[in-house]
Each structure stands twice: as C-alpha cells, then as structure tokens.
C-alpha cells in the first residue's frame, strides 16, 4: 500500500498505526480499524479475533476478499475507494487495445530473441475502427473519451444508458446484438453478475464479425474462455487482450499459448497514481470515521447513529429490496423514480430509505459499489431524477411505500410494507395485489388468467427439478391479465425461463434474485 497515501493516518496524533500482515500479529484484539488490499482475506474467523474492530477499509474497488455479511452482523463498517483507479483501468484498456492491434508484445519478444521480422507483425490502425463498449459506467466513459481522440466510431451497449446521457457524451447507443455485429473491437466494462457471466460465450461470439478483437479488463468470467478458444482456433476472433481471467492466477495454458492472445496479471489498476489515490482515499475515510464522522463510502452499513438506525432498519432493508427488484424487472433506461410514503413510516427520516431504494436499484447497473451516500451522485451521472413525497393513502396497511419507475418506453410500480410479525412484504406489483417476502430466488411471470397456465408452469419447473416454495397470483379481473411471483429453492437457468415463455398464455418471465 502506498506510504504516501497512508500519510493522513501515519501523521495523525490520534491514531497509532501498525503495518503488518494480520497473520503475523499475535494479539488482534487491540485494533479499531483494518486496512487491506486484495491479498488479505477478511473472514468471519478473523473478525472474531478483533472484537474492537469498527471499520475495514479496502484500498481499491473490489471487496470480494471481505465477508460483508459477517462484518455487518458484527457491526463493522466496510468501506472502499470506488474512484481511485478509474483512470488507470481506462488507460490500461486502451494500452491493451493498441498492443493487440499492433502486435507490440509479440514484436518485443521477437526482437529480444535476436530476430528482425517486420512482415510478421503488420497491424491495424485504430482510426476508422468501430469500438464496441459493453457497459458504460465511469471506466467505459473514460475509455470512450480516449477513443474519440483517436477518431474511432463508438457503439455502446448499456441497457440502463438513457438517450439523453448518450447524446451528452457523444456516443451511439446500440443493442448488444448491434455491438456484436457492428464492432471491429469489443471491450467489456460491466460488473460480474448472473446476467453478465459468460456474456461473451459461444452464442454471442458467433454473432461478431470475422476478424473481431476482444478485450476484457473488467472481471474474469464475462468472456467464456472455452468459447474464446474455440473462435480463436477457427480464426473467427482475430485476437484477445485479457487482464482478468476465470481463474487467477491464470491457469489455462492453452488460452495463453495462442500467439494472438496477450495478457497481463490483473494489473489494470496497478499504477503508482492509482495506488496513491486509493490509499489516500481510504486513509482519510478511516481517519474521519474514527473521529466520529460518518463513512462516505460505506458498502454494508448506513451512516446513521445506532438509535436512528434501529428505528429505520426494517424500512431501510425493505426499500433496498424494492430497489433491487425494480432494477431487475425494469431492464431499460430509466429517467425518473418517485417514492411515496404513507402511514407510520412518514414519522421516520424517509430520505434515508429513499437513498437505500436508489442504492438497491443502481447496484446491479454499475461496476462499483453503491451506497446511500454515493447513490445520489451515481443517479445524477446516469441522468436519473428521483424524489420522495408523503401521501394520505395507505391501502389498508399501517405503513406503505410506493415506488414508481419511469423509463423511456415503460413504467413499473411496486408497493411494499413492513409487518412486525412477518417482516418486509411486497404487496402490489403494477396494480396486481400480491403478498410475498422479497428474498431468495424468485420467478416473475406475466400471463393470461386462463385454466392450465399455472399447471403447465408447475410441470415445467418439476421437469427441471425446480421446487416451488411459495407462489402468489394476482389478477385484476377474471380472464384478463395476471401475474405470478414464484419463490423457488434454487437459481433457475436461462433455458428454463426461455421455455416458460413458450407456454401458451405466458408472455413474460424472468428471474429475480433478492
């Protein structure tokens, strides 16, 4: 970790610092704060040895090495440095793109071996090429700016990118298929989720133009490495540049043996400037937190006093789940989100729960951690307006939260309530009355209210050994539109959802993970 970046802590008279591996410290019970990078795994067992611990700071973006559930249960705040390596990653991606198209690593190896073979390393110019960017968050945005300077055309796929923001940034929005079929170079910049894992696999890579180049400096697993090897072998893919891999350290020797594959050992964020930035950011964050100020980049806990948090906690968790559900079912660009409160919840500080809903909504859509503090900024960057209002209507409940999401081509609504004996409940979706717990594996189905639809749905799930835990059906009138919310015991594969959509009477089906 950068010494210069740690100066805020090292020079503070209020904090005593020990720079050492946690495995080399005999007594961990004395520490109030823990700063780590990716090499240190923060487990429940480690946290148990640190009873005084108040905060864990990750000098970087990813927190895969920290047990967030265990930290939350112990009341330990986890923070990161979400902005510190944006430029480094964007620059590394661009460097990989240039190296790939100009065969620079191969030419270096050749000349160091005493060869002089100019014809073997003829490359391609970037000018005039079409760069497809999959995922348009902070890193994708910075990459686009650099690509425009090289006179490249830009196709951007991000299902949550509004037309207004795309026009402002000077890029062309496209479907994923348009990016695949129309790009000379494709780079991915999304988080690794159930939707993006294997996104560039056999089916989608086959849609690319012959001679396409692929780049992944985001998360290992977004490009299916077995599929990539197949299309490298038959010459369809002209080359690939990888900074991240499905398994790290990289173990697939067959993949790395391709002469048109270049790789780096997950170093996109490894610059002196980035390491200084992330170390300084978390050092200042920890120092402020230990001095009694709220953590601005908290990932797992809201920045509230314990007394306020205990009162608002049930609604905080409810709105987080509502936002997450809305994000998964509203897979289109969104322009506006309105949150309405009725009943006893209006006596609380609802700005906290509104920010929680926004964080839950935005997290599946961006490539960095979203929390209550930065949700407003990220929403603004994405061109999403949001607000809250109180209402007299409670729909028969003691408290009600009603969220309306407006997109470019559709509107989606959800109502939730908290019942002390039963916990958080979703009680209405798009005007259909339901009653289910927002947790676990869910299947959301829109269908016609006719005999046999539910039976065929149940039989199909049974054929795939998917057990139904609970099922809620909502309808407005007999024989009209209806919805089902089915809770199941395991994650449902995409092929099952595709077969559900083929059942007569079902016109929409998708999974929701809570």
Automatic annotation (TrEMBL):
Domain ACT: 442-514
Highest taxon of the lineage: Bacteria
GO biological process, alphabetically ordered: L-serine biosynthetic process
Reactions the enzyme catalyzes: (2R)-3-phosphoglycerate + NAD(+) = 3-phosphooxypyruvate + NADH + H(+); (R)-2-hydroxyglutarate + NAD(+) = 2-oxoglutarate + NADH + H(+)
Top-level class of the enzyme under EC nomenclature: oxidoreductase
Family annotation (SUPFAM superfamilies): ACT-like, Formate/glycerate dehydrogenase catalytic domain-like, NAD(P)-binding Rossmann-fold domains, Serine metabolism enzymes domain
Record CDD domains: ACT_3PGDH-xct, PGDH_4
Keywords: Amino-acid biosynthesis, NAD, Oxidoreductase, Serine biosynthesis
GO molecular function: NAD binding; phosphoglycerate dehydrogenase activity
Record keyword Transmembrane helix present: no
InterPro entries: ACT-like_dom_sf, ACT_dom, ASB_dom_sf, D-2-hydroxyacid_DH, D-isomer_2_OHA_DH_cat_dom, D-isomer_DH_CS, D-isomer_DH_CS1, D-isomer_DH_NAD-bd
Enzyme Commission (EC) number: 1.1.1.95
PROSITE patterns the record matches: ACT (PS51671), D_2_HYDROXYACID_DH_1 (PS00065), D_2_HYDROXYACID_DH_2 (PS00670), D_2_HYDROXYACID_DH_3 (PS00671)
Statement: the UniProt record of this protein carries the keyword Acetylation: no
Metabolic or biological pathway, per its Swiss-Prot or TrEMBL entry: Amino-acid biosynthesis; L-serine biosynthesis; L-serine from 3-phospho-D-glycerate: step 1/3
Physiological role: Catalyzes the reversible oxidation of 3-phospho-D-glycerate to 3-phosphonooxypyruvate, the first step of the phosphorylated L-serine biosynthesis pathway. Also catalyzes the reversible oxidation of 2-hydroxyglutarate to 2-oxoglutarate.
Family affiliation: Belongs to the D-isomer specific 2-hydroxyacid dehydrogenase family.
Protein name: D-3-phosphoglycerate dehydrogenase
Organism: Halalkalibacter okhensis
